[in-house]
Design brief:
Elements lengths: L4 H13 L5 E2 L4 E3 L2 E2 L8 E6 L2 E10 L2 E4 L1 H4 L8 E5 L9 E10 L13 E5 L13 E2 L10 E7 L12 E9 L1 H7 L8 E5 L4 E3 L6 E4 L3 E9 L9 E5 L4 H4 L2
Parallel strand pairs: 10-16
Antiparallel strand pairs: 1-16, 2-14, 3-12, 4-5, 4-7, 5-6, 6-9, 7-8, 8-9, 11-12, 11-15, 12-13, 13-17, 15-16, 16-17
């Protein structure tokens, strides 16, 4: 596991002390979520390094995975990266495919987490079926605002809890740019969107995982936020609509 519970607890304390710190949502912690099976979200994958889960991702083509740049930028040993797909659990089941190449957005900023997107190319195609399907991406001309969406990933239901292996989901509502920028003191950019709900959130994870709207298209990528499930600060997601040219699928 990428971090221990002790590290997670220390990070939580750091967030309380420094609420303006950008905390990448690593390790797969979903607050207020519920169990789901992979058949309900067959586009979800687990990114693995040396065989251990470290981030989430989504299937966007037979040999392409969409994730966050902060998940991949420090993992240069591509030979030791793989994805597990078609499984409700993150450590077994389904199938594993090795990573061939990773392309992070050239404008990715590890401090601001702007342009937080990567596209992974696999060494071979994913075998599609009821447990593995391509997710459609939000259209370039989509209308922003008023949407609801589901974010999925592997993780605990509350800060400091144990790390179960079962896939979880939580339903969120879109927070307006005006409201989000007030909360985050004006740091939101066009390549970010905000989603949240009282006592529900993605939290330090599943970074790179998909945020999929009610009409079945991926609108966001789990990126960062201040705190977890705090009514003052919704989660911030990479805005897939504004990143379509880079994703190029």
């Amino acid at each position: 596991m990428f971090k221990t519970l002790l590290v997670a607890a220390l990070l939580a304390l750091a967030v309380e002390a420094r609420p303006n710190s950008r905390l990448p949502r690593l390790d797969g912690r979903i607050v207020g979520g519920y169990d789901v099976d992979i058949e309900e979200h067959p586009y979800q994958v687990s990114l693995q390094y040396y065989g251990s889960h470290f981030c989430g991702g989504s299937i966007i083509a037979p040999n392409k995975i969409l994730t966050a740049a902060h998940c991949t930028v420090k993992r240069k040993e591509r030979d030791h990266m793989s994805i597990r797909y078609g499984s409700t659990t993150k450590e077994d089941g389904g199938d594993v495919v090795q990573v061939k190449d990773v392309e992070e957005h050239s404008s990715f900023d590890s401090y601001t987490l702007e342009f937080d997107v990567s596209v992974i190319t696999l060494v071979s195609d994913i075998q599609m079926g009821k447990n593995a399907r391509i997710v459609e991406l939000v259209p370039r001309d989509a209308v922003e605002g008023g949407r609801t969406a589901v974010v999925t990933g592997w993780g605990v239901l509350e800060s400091g809890g144990p790390f179960p292996t079962h896939l979880k989901a939580v339903k969120l509502r879109e927070v307006s740019r005006t409201e989000c920028n007030v909360a985050y003191e004006g740091v939101l950019t066009d390549v970010m969107i905000c989603f949240g709900e009282y006592e529900k959130d993605s939290c330090q994870g599943d970074s790179g995982g998909p945020l999929v709207s009610d009409d079945g298209v991926q609108v966001g990528i789990v990126s960062w936020g201040w705190g977890c499930a705090d009514r003052r600060w919704p989660g911030i997601y990479s805005n897939v609509q504004k990143l379509r040219d880079f994703i190029n699928v």
